[in-house]
Amino acid sequence: MALAGECPGNPNALGTSRVLAISPDDFSHIGSMQYKQSLPLADHEVVITFDDGPLPPYSNIILDTLASQCVKVTYFLVGEMAHAYPAIVRRMFNEGHTLGTHSQDHPLGFERLGQARVEREIDGGIASVDAALGDPKALAPFFRIPGLGRSDTVENYTSEQHLVIWSADVVADDWFRHISAQQIAKRAISRLEEKGRGILLLHDIHPATAMALPTILKELKQRGYHVVQVVAAGERPATLPETMITSPTPDQEAWPRILKTSAASISGTAKDEPALRHRVKRALAARHRGAKLAGMTEPDYVKLNRNWQLSQF
Asked: How many domains does the chain have?
């Protein structure tokens, strides 16, 4: 793990300040948006998490950004995506990130699923990520429910399987249609500032999130935040063998040209960036079945959080 000031080639990097090891014996449900318990973080400590991937090229771009700042995060991977892009899954692990799961197919309305479907989704997601990694010890017993759709059925089964359910403390609305990179960064930082610490939920399948991440990390550094990496207690392999990778097509591994020209939207100069970005997403979806997640409508997590808070009184 590289601390701030120890990042090769970048002495001013944000870095990762410490590693926190947790066990399902101590933490069954975490994240103040839905649960009374969250991670034991100090003031101005943040745990960064990404859902729904992997999906090229955005997952790779985000990994490049994290590597440049020596920041370690937690990924919650969808099984079918891991099956489609196992090389990216292994890259995530070999670059030191923590990997959890996010179901096999990311169905909507997870809270309405019956027992049999819940079991298939959870077990299938774990099996697919295990297969992509090639070593079940590499996978952490961490699970985030799609859409944060909690239910007794889900929570009872994850408890039986000794999984830690992760909710979140802060969201940035990066799944919204037509949201800009500038808006994502602003919401992530302002909401984190309100909390003072917490688990930040992002998605690595969206171009705007990939564009926003450098700004988010820069702001965290300037505001005195420290990144904490959460790992599962116990041993895990140091590295995994690389898989054989065929030559990628341009849209698989390279940032689309249209997004390069629209990156100026971070400073608000590209008025047509949202429409261009979504045309790129539609093109990717036509080539990759997994890209359906990129256009998926997520719940209003802020409203969900507010409703949960009201229910506590």
From this structure: 1
The DSSP element (H or E) to which 274 belongs, if any, is: helix 273-287
- Domain assignment present for residue 130? The answer is yes
- Lowest-pLDDT choice from 154-163, 193-202, 210-219, 266-275: 266-275
Read off the pLDDT of residues 4-40 as tens digits, 9 standing for 90 and up: 558 988 999 999 999 999 999 999 999 999 999 999 9
| Token pair of 42 as six digits | 């100090």
DSSP string spanning 209-259?
HHHHHHHHHHHHHHTT-EEEEEEESS---S--PPPP-PPPPHHHHS--HHH
Condensed to tens digits (0 to 9), the pLDDT of residues 137-177 reads: 999 999 999 999 999 999 999 999 999 999 999 999 999 99
CA atoms within 13 A on the CB side of 157: 19
The candidate with the shortest Cα–Cα distance to 165, out of 122, 117, 124, 135, is: 122
**Alpha helices in 77-151, H assignment, sequence order:** 79-84, 86-94, 115-133
195 touches 170 (CB < 8 A): yes
Determine the Cα–Cα distance for residues 181 and 186; give it in Å rounded to an integer.
9
∠ Cα 8 9 12 (to 5°): 95
Model pLDDT for residues 33-66, shown as the tens digit of each residue: 999 999 999 999 999 999 999 999 999 999 999 9
Compute the distance between CA of residue 169 and CA of residue 188 in angstroms, rounded to an integer.
11
Q: Which helix (H) or strand (E) holds 193?
A: helix 181-195
CA-to-CA dists, residue 128 to 78, 120, 123, 230, angstroms = 8, 12, 9, 22
- Could you count the other beta carbons within 10 Å of the beta carbon of residue 217? 21
CATH no. for residue 76? 3.20.20.370
Residue 253: count other Cβ atoms within 10 Å of its Cβ.
15
- Phi and psi at residue 312, to the nearest 5°: -85, -5
Establish if 255 belongs to a structural domain. Answer: yes
Query: Residue 84's domain spans which residues?
Result: 18-234+250-311
